[in-house]
Amino acid sequence: MSLDDYRFLESFKRKRIRLTTKGGTFVGVVQRINLNKTIILDDVAEVQSGCRFVGAKLFFGQEILNVEFTSSTNKDGLGNEDHDKVGQLSLAEFQPYRNTLLSGGDDDDDDDDDDDEKEQFVNYVVVDEFHEKFGPAIMHIRKQKLIGLGLDGVGAFQSERLCWLQMAVKNKVYLFDILLLGARAFRNGLSSILESTDILKVMHDCRRISGCLMAQFGVNLLNVFDTQVADVMQFYAETGGFLPTRVSTLQEVISFHLKMPLSSLSSLSIKDQLCMENKEVWYVRPCPAPLLRVMALSVIHLQPLRLMLLDALMSDYTSLVDSYLKTGQENPVRTEDIGKTGLELPQELREIELIKFKRQKWAVDHYNLTEDGLLDRFSIKATSDPDLEIQEQPEMLDSSMVAGKTYPNPAVMSTIGGGRKGRELADMMERRKVDILCVQETRWKGSKARSIGAGFKLFYYGVDSKRNGVGVVLKEEFVRNVLEVKRVSDRVMSLKLEIEGVMLNVVSGYAPQVGCELEEKERFWSELDEVMESIPTGERVVIGADFNGHVGEGNTSDEEVMGKFEVKERNLEGQMVVDFAKRMDMAVVNTYFQKREEHRVTYKSGGR
């Protein structure tokens, strides 16, 4: 018998268990468990009659039908009520980001049964026997290109005794009871999955998992994406080369990157606390349903988390590629100096050093720096704005009257989150002394607030990286004045600020284009109406929107809401703008000012 086996058997001593045999059901305290499959109980009572036995009682293994801890039984003797071997987790409750993040489907999942995007639940299944469950589970997992992986056990690091192994596919989590299945489970399929280079395993802190698998079962874990490592790399890039003082827990990474409040991840915290207080809970059989649920929850976020981390890690690259594209489109005819090879490092790539320098300055200004040169990412300087970190928070943006297209370029925000486009926008605002700017068609997915450089911060919202999206940029001296942020949809959002005692509501809107369905246009105006109606009387409102309509030049009939300086004839979309202005007693501001001919239409395409 190995030392681990001895410790395992010893851990049951003085535990009260419920033991079912062919002759009846008994409750007693474990005195000893022998290798010959006999159990000696003390303080024994027969459940049905209540009769107590004097002294110790010996039970033989061949007579025992079931063993469970009394903590999982009730007074009526029904010990299996908590042992739900199949369960469901609601997507709406536990993966609220899923419809947005995976709206285009998951190319990494070849699952036919679980690929229905309309599925409202993630199912979890306990695999604790070979006859019916194990084979189908292994076959299903082998079809995947990507799985989430987790484990739970008793002990520390490589000496940990593995009790449960969790594998998550798109809409299902398999909970393998390794304590019951044993090494045979690895010989019959688990090892081939874990060592496969064709299946990517996503996990948080692979050191513990790989060490445990190698030490106990000789499994060489391959093809791994570690969310803890990716989170540190993202922080390193975001701060211009600084490392954090510590790594993040799984719930911290989920909260930060998937924008889930920590209150929604309390089950993961409870799991950590439970393991610290009583790790032997993983030995309990049958396993209580709440514990099964917690194990499933610990792996369902891993696949979406990988997508978000990859996007974050690739943001600098995509920003530089966008710069390349812009250069090629704006300067189709390239000129070269005599003696140049054309392979010199271009200006677009030289900006990498500038980006790094600015990020380092921002990081030092906002995080506490230790003597070791590390940043305490969980301790923001008291003099800095706590909202500069991207966190889930109440949002604020309400309605106001728009002066037309605030920023015309459809791709201007494609990489605004700290990329070159964001810096260009910040530089423009600084140059033109603009304190508050509404932007539309940002095409930036997420619900965040972040610095874009030059002392400006962007609040934005989008659900698709290919269309729509709105945002508001504030000079950072006004960020502390923000009282509320409302992200209504990817076409309407608002901010409420208090400036010198005056309540100001800033609304950013992006109306559907001329070719869109009437239903979509009506939905936009309905959302905008709701925002306006939610603003208390007496508060000021400014709307900065791209209404995608022409209110018409030479106005003579709607002087109360607009001037006469516009372009083209009024269309249906323009009439909707005028009707809204009348309804809300507002004015289309940019029609009151005469502009140069080249400034009257801001949209450009292909140099025209």
TrEMBL record:
Residues 159-235 form the 3'-5' exonuclease domain. One of its GO terms (biological process) is piRNA processing. GO terms for molecular function: 3'-5' exonuclease activity; nucleic acid binding. It comes from the Eukaryota. SUPFAM superfamilies: DNase I-like, Ribonuclease H-like. GO terms for cellular component: PET complex. Residues 422-555 form the Endonuclease/exonuclease/phosphatase domain. InterPro entries: 3'-5'_exonuclease_dom, Endo/exonu/phosph_ase_sf, Endo/exonuclease/phosphatase, piRNA_biogenesis_EXD1, RNaseH-like_sf, RNaseH_sf. Coiled coil: none annotated. This is 3'-5' exonuclease domain-containing protein. It comes from Hemibagrus guttatus. The lineage of its organism: Eukaryota, Metazoa, Chordata, Craniata, Vertebrata.
